[in-house]
Amino acid sequence: MSAIVYADFSRPDCYLSSRRVDALRAAGVDVDWRAVEHQPQPQLPVTGRRLTPADQDALVERFATLDRLLLPGEQLPWTAPGHAPKTEAAISAYAAVYGTAAGDDVRRLLFELYWQRGADIGSPTVLRTPLAGPAMRSGVDAEPLRQCGFAVSVDRGPITTDAHRRIRTWRDEWREMGSPMLPVLLVDGATLSGVDALRRLDKEITYADADANPKLADPRRYPPVQGRPSPAWVSQVGGRWRNIYRLTPTH
């Protein structure tokens, strides 16, 4: 099987789809995971919004439904977040390392940060430290990633031209399908979305005789990053990085 999944980082169903993609990939199945933003502006403020009690109740209900879809041994750990993020920054970070050895680690880290730690993955400041290790070691030949693991710009956008092109392509592909409910699964000529996509991933795990909860390398295993971008990059490209992160000495 060769398949493509389109998903966002802030939706419970997409979280389960990511873990099922991990199970398939661990079994040697070719699955391409692409990130799209489910709630782009102006529907969601750039800083996101706090979840209301009704939102929290809806999450509890949704995860209860997903629990009933789990395979034997499959896990979906989560803690109720207090914030609905605009996921532009998370998608920018993932797009920067997509297709590299660090791509799956960054994807898993982003889901873990939000769904297990309640972190605001829409904030470049929040993403800076946990993503720096894998981003720096991704092999991407761009100075901010190679030298200090900067995977997303201060304004939440992509930090490389390749990442920008990927984000635009993924978004356009999803829109050309009619922007169906996420996650979307393309497999065997079919386009499946939402629960139908999750059920098909369930079947593919069974067909592949894959472990539904595989032992994967810890995405937090990378050593801390101490590097800083060059003064030239900060002054000419990085802009506000210099002030927010104190990247150049003060006198």
CATH architecture: 3-Layer(aba) Sandwich
- CATH topology, what is it called? Glutaredoxin
Helix count from the secondary structure assignment: 10
SSE string, helices as H and strands as E: EHEEHEHHHHHEEHHH
Commentary on this structure:
The protein has about 250 residues and is of the alpha+beta class. It has helices at about 10-25, 55-65, 90-95, 105-115, 125-135, 145-150, 160-175, 195-205, 230-240, 240-245, and strands at about 1-5, 30-35, 50, 85, 185, 190-195. It has one domain (about 1-225): Glutaredoxin (3-Layer(aba) Sandwich), CATH 3.40.30.10. The protein contains 10 helices and 6 strands; from the N terminus they run E-H-E-E-H-E-H-H-H-H-H-E-E-H-H-H. Helix 1 links the parallel strand 1 (about 1-5) and strand 2 (about 30-35). Helix 3 (about 90-95) packs parallel to helix 5 (about 125-135) and helix 3 (about 90-95) packs across helix 7 (about 160-175). Mean pLDDT is about 90; it is low at about 240-250.
Secondary structure: elements and pairs:
Layout (H helix, E strand, L loop, with lengths): L1 E6 L4 H15 L3 E6 L13 E2 L2 H15 L15 E2 L3 H10 L5 H13 L8 H13 L6 H6 L12 H16 L7 E4 L2 E4 L1 H13 L23 H8 L2 H4 L7
Parallel strand pairs: 1-2
Antiparallel strand pairs: 1-5, 3-4, 5-6
Helix pairs in contact: 1-4, 1-8, 3-4, 3-5, 3-7, 4-5
In short:
The chain is of the alpha+beta class and 251 residues long. It has helices spanning 12-26, 53-67, 88-97, 103-115, 124-136, 143-148, 161-176, 195-207, 231-238, 241-244, and strands at 2-7, 30-35, 49-50, 83-84, 184-187, 190-193.
